[in-house]
Amino acid sequence: MTQTINSTLDAVTDRIRARSAPTRAAYLAQVAAARETGRNRSTLSCGNLAHGFAACGGDDKRALKDGGWANVGIVTAYNDMLSAHQPFGPYPDQIKKALNQVGAVGQVAGGVPAMCDGVTQGQPGMELSLFSRDVIAMSTAVALSHNMFDAALCLGVCDKIVPGLMIGALRFGHLPVIFVPAGPMRSGLPNPEKAKVRQLYAEGKVGRDALLDAESKSYHSPGTCTFYGTANSNQMLMEIMGLHIPGAAFVNPADPMRAAFTRTAAQRAAAITADKPDYAPIGEIVDEKALVNAIVGLHATGGSTNHTIHLIAIARAAGILIDWSDFDDLASVTPLLCRVYPNGPADVNHFHAAGGLGLVIRELLDAGLLHDDVKTVMGAGLRRYASEAFSDGDGLTWRPVEGGSADLSIVRPVSEPFSADGGLKLLDGPLGRAVIKVSAVAEAHRVVEAPAIVFESQDSFLDCFKAGDLDRDFIAVLRFQGPRANGMPELHKLTPALGSLQDRGFKVALVTDGRMSGASGKVPAAIHVSPEAALGGPLARVVDGDTIRLDARTGELSIVAEGFDGRAPAVAPSTIQAGMGRELFAGFRQLAGPAEEGALAIPDLVAASPTDAGLIPA
Q1: Average pLDDT of the segment spanning 135-160
Q2: Would you call 576 exposed, middle or buried from its count of C-beta atoms within 10 A (0-12, 13-18, 19+)?
Q3: Which of 93, 393, 565, 588 has its Cα between 20 and 30 A from that of 164?
Q4: How many angstroms separate the Cα of 342 from the Cα of each of 223, 227, 228, 347, 573?
Q5: DSSP for 366-390?
Q6: Which residues contact 276 (CB under 8 A, 6 or more apart)?
Q7: How far apart are CA 218 and CA 212, in angstroms?
Q8: Are 112 and 73 in contact (CB under 8 A)?
Q9: Please, which residues have CB within 8 angstroms of residue 443's CB and are 6 or more apart in sequence?
Q10: Ordered DSSP codes for 569-590
Q11: Torsion angle of C-alpha atoms 129, 161, 34, 53, degrees rounded to 10
Q12: How far is CA 184 from the centre of its chain?
């Protein structure tokens, strides 16, 4: 059956393809040059190779020495402090056993750091968070640079980890790469109850003991946090881009099917290497259509605003240029099909049980809102992911998703969406370009016009809140929070206080060059404002009392202020960014690009050509 594609989807894809033509061609030439060198280990000297398999067991060593078996590199974000990554501990042994069963070898190529924004939120360590993505990308490259591997498995789940693994893996675009998740923890304290306790604590109505008890009941066991933040948005993206085994995203760590997904991923990686008919290099899977599918998936599910940065960075690693206008145009035609916290009371376990990603992908495909003619790690066609996985002994089998949602308060069909357009919008105007997540913002709060109150730290805002100085209508302008200023930490420390003020009947909003994640909630927040204040962006000229209008319906972010254009910009506060390792990231801050270009601290990534890399003659 020929698919009828939505005309806007088609137009945006064509626009991205035209914009990216030179850089994408250079990237694909680099991929081809790497592939043409032959089986990776054939380029290694005897000394190189001996070092590479010296620690292997007998059968694996013989296989690598003789060259008959594929070798799959494992890049892992395992640590046992983070609930989402603790389950990865036994995965390498499981993967190696599964590979041996199909005549292949597995080696842990390397580890990547994995920090948790939940632990560092509001703390100095949060200023390392965004740049940890680029460290992870480089760590992935270090792991794969040994040139010992025919394919790779990337073990990671959370916020910066998956984008970092993606960026690193895409620079080895000739390799097949499958992403292996660990799944969400089982449901604990319902997310709305947790949010209520946080707000009561911010208002001084409950103590720290009650707050810690609520948090502990919410984050209670191994697995990803159950709200639909950046971590779980990552898992949706890997699935809708065809880089997961179908259905892998939201199966709990202790579920017996989790091990089956891991085995299947390992054995599939060995089946799609360059010497096999189903060869599926990641550099060809991640193309313009796959990225458009990812953006549509983000809108349809009400996913994390962080991906208005991360997807751009991922795309650039594949030689593709996307921007916020692409996000905005696709949002205008993508219906919101899901209500998962913070966009509703359900968590990802409820979402999965109600139909989950298989149902969402089917609905979007049937409506012409996803490209079906894409490559995936399972073969041609995204329709393979409009399915539900079942246990088949030690393996898996899939059946097409049939019927509708099991709970229309969580997942709906395209014919009956929660809203006609997606949950993210572009804001533009004299203050710059920004994004806003509106899927959790009530219609009554989507337009705020009020005097500005300018802050240059989260703590100064909270001091004013605690002193009762913010009991009025206002728009908080929190500036010098961008990548160049302090690494663009997330600003969720403000969320309970802003929510409390809104609940008291005040018109409040946030405008910032900083970040909020997928947990951003009911208060309208214009985030990632670019250009940032530290680079002389318009936010640096705002003063208390200027009238700002934030209109999420029309996409307006404007200011009424006499002599605004002629004002001298404010100077960034003099702060010593040392301690908690921040001094080690000074170079990253100096190199960081704009948010709309992915906030990358890896200069000219998209401009790298095969000639520059020395892979083909000049």
Answers
A1: 96
A2: exposed
A3: 93
A4: 18, 7, 7, 9, 33
A5: HTT-S--S-EETTEE-GGGGSEEEE
A6: none
A7: 10
A8: no
A9: none
A10: PPPPP-----STTGGGGHHHHH
A11: 110
A12: 16
Distance CA 95, CA 176 (A): 16
Nearest residue to 376 via CA among 562, 510, 178: 178
CA distance 597 to 83: 31
Sign of CA dihedral 413, 247, 111, 79: positive
Q: Are 302 and 232 in contact (CB under 8 A)?
A: no
CA atoms within 13 A on the CB side of 203: 17
CB atoms within 10 A of CB 271: 18
Q: Which amino acid would we find at residue 187?
A: S
Taking only the tens place, the pLDDT of each residue in 465-483 is 999 999 999 999 999 999 9
Please tell me the total number of residues recorded for the chain in this structure: 618
Site of tokens 């898992």: 235
List the structure tokens of 498.
């802003």
- Give the predicted TM-score (pTM) of the model: 0.93
d(C-alpha 517, C-alpha 341), whole Å: 13
pLDDT exceeds 50 at position 338: yes
Distance (Å, whole) CA 178 – CA 173? 12
The candidate with the shortest Cα–Cα distance to 72, out of 124, 27, 108, is 108
Digit-coded pLDDT (tens) for 5-61: 999 999 999 999 999 999 999 999 999 999 987 656 777 788 888 788 878 888 888
Q: Can you tell me the mean pLDDT for 337-349?
A: 89
Q: Which residues contact 517 (CB under 8 A, 6 or more apart)?
A: 117, 159, 229, 230, 304, 305, 306, 490, 492
Exposure letters 49-66 (e unless 16+ CB within 10 A, then b): beebbeebeeebeebbee
3-state secondary structure of 585: helix
Q: d(Cα 206, Cα 196) in Å, to the nearest integer?
A: 11
Q: Is the dihedral of CA 92, 152, 237, 121 positive or negative?
A: positive
Q: Which residues are 307's β-sheet partners?
A: none
Q: Which residue has the tokens 């795309």?
A: 315
> How far, in Å, CA of 123 to CA of 578, rounded?
13
pLDDT at 125 over 90: no
Distances (CA, A) of 560 to 77, 479, 511, 544: 48, 18, 15, 12
DSSP state of 571: P
Please answer whether residues 529 and 157 qualify as being in contact, where contact means their C-beta atoms are separated by less than 8 angstroms.
no
> Alpha-carbon distance 468 to 462, whole Å?
10
Angle between helix axes 288-301 and 324-331 (nearest 10 degrees) is 60
Q: Which H or E element spans position 577? A: none
Return mean pLDDT, the chain: 91
